[in-house]
């Protein structure tokens, strides 16, 4: 590939994009927001991603993943880029998609103290809702977007979704009736007046807020949905099962699953119960038939996985809140040696049918590990030009 084509490949962000300071919009993809945002952190993130991508020398498919309108694909590509950069920054040579016995390949391989260690990246709990649910909700939101110059903002609170398409005419007629019933009320009163629209299995609570002035074209107001609870144990165990090294033909080398969990409610210590199905204070009682990723129904499982490298809250825009830790599998056929990486490690020793917990806490600064200037990252210039 010549230099001109290489430069074109790394044009991840369109330099002609008009920058704005608006917050992320409804249905705007993470990449599009990152590309057009004038926020200082987004400006810096664009520079970092471009520099990291050049160092990685990715192919066109990986670049298209970064630029994807599908947030899951975009987030997965950014996460891979972060893992690759971390491994390089700590002085390791990194081989992308190393050739193995089977056709499928893990993401990376590095030689760590003369031993080949394989790394596979995956996401867990990165969204409160699926892309399919987003698509269904988006179809309803598009109906409201077609209502122009309404004197009210139309707010939607999704209580229940359906696989059946919603009738545009029926929904618009219902909203017209809500408008009639809302006449004469102040906004404070309107906020508490909710009307339930039901069609097939759809249940949407609709409310109105009067616009502050005439001439505002858009009518879509706020959008909400009853909170869903992420089952982190299920999500992480699913990731473990999906990324087993046997699919790559890895059996005699350490294999590490790099797991990104961006659920803000997930605590690192929950990994004890996620991996072993139980947590009894200073030890794991193996007489308990746990249902975890490393121990299930009194038996060690996923023994070909050497460790989970947990990247909690890790994204290019949330470096400051990231927590990284390695969780060693005490039953691993090919264990990962301790103290090979500059992050906190959780490991165990077996005694009297109990796994006793041990920790090597390193309190590493993620900014330092990725060589990102923390002050610049967290600075918002006063005279920032948002044009």
Structure, explained:
The chain is of the alpha/beta class. The chain has 12 helices and 15 strands. The protein has 2 domains: 59-127 and 231-376, no CATH class; 131-225, no CATH class. 30% of the residues lie in helices and 22% in strands. The chain has a 9-stranded mixed beta sheet with strand order 1-2-3-8-12-13-14-15-9. The two termini are 36 Å apart.
Write a short abstract of this structure.
This protein is of the alpha/beta class. Helix content is 30%, strand content 22%.
Features:
387 residues, alpha/beta, nine-stranded mixed sheet, four-stranded mixed sheet, 15 strands, globular, disordered C terminus
Query: Helicity range of the residues?
Result: 25-40%
Shape: globular
Count of alpha/pi helices = 12
**Overall pLDDT score:** 86
Written as H for each helix and E for each strand, in order along the chain, the element string is HHHHHEEEHEHHEEEHEHEEEEEEEHH
Q: What is the CA–CA distance across the termini?
A: 36 Å
The count of strands amounts to 15
The profile of the biggest β sheet is: 9 strands, mixed
Strand line-up of the largest beta sheet: 1-2-3-8-12-13-14-15-9
Radius of gyration: 25 Å
Oligomerization category of the chains in this entry: single chain
Percentage of β-strand residues: 15-25%
Give the structural class: alpha/beta
Number of domains: 2
**Which regions contain 5 or more consecutive residues with pLDDT less than 50?**
1-6, 382-387
